[in-house]
Amino acid sequence: MDMAWVRLAWVHLAWVHLAWVHLVWVHLVWVHLVWVRLAWVHLVWVHLAWVRLAWKEWVDMARKVAAGMAGMAAWAMAWAASPHLAPPSNI
Length: 91
Description:
By secondary structure, the protein is mainly alpha-helical. Helix content is 88%, strand content 0%. The protein starts with a helix and ends in a 10-residue tail after the last helix.
């Protein structure tokens, strides 16, 4: 009878140990999955933010270049249309 209690205690201890190990591993796996998901979400959002910023910068630069070219074209057309700004005809 005494050995049955000892055996029952060891079986109980083994099952409790297995339950704790299982809980710890399940918790670690879930934490890992959550952190990996957060890392990927962070990576995607940071990448999208950089792409958006780069696109905005590129569009701003393209607009400035286009405005500069339009200004130069307007100046050239005005220069060509002004007789007092035109070069001498004997050149």
